[in-house]
Amino acid sequence: MRYAVIYEQTATGYSAYVPDLPGCVAAASTLDETKLLMREAIQFHLECMREYGERIPEPTTVADEVEVPA
Q1: For the chain, which residues make up each domain, given as ranges?
Q2: What is the mean pLDDT of the chain?
């Protein structure tokens, strides 16, 4: 499965969340570390959902970038 992840720069580093998996978040001081933690968070989140018999949501969020003149 491929879930969209939103990364945001914060005052102390980066935070991230998955719109299709409410409550699945990660934060770290660097973007690379946040990406690593987010991958682990998604895996753990899905494992917990399976363990509790919850339905695993299909990815529906699509993220893209739009370039505009400055």
Answers
A1: 6-51
A2: 97
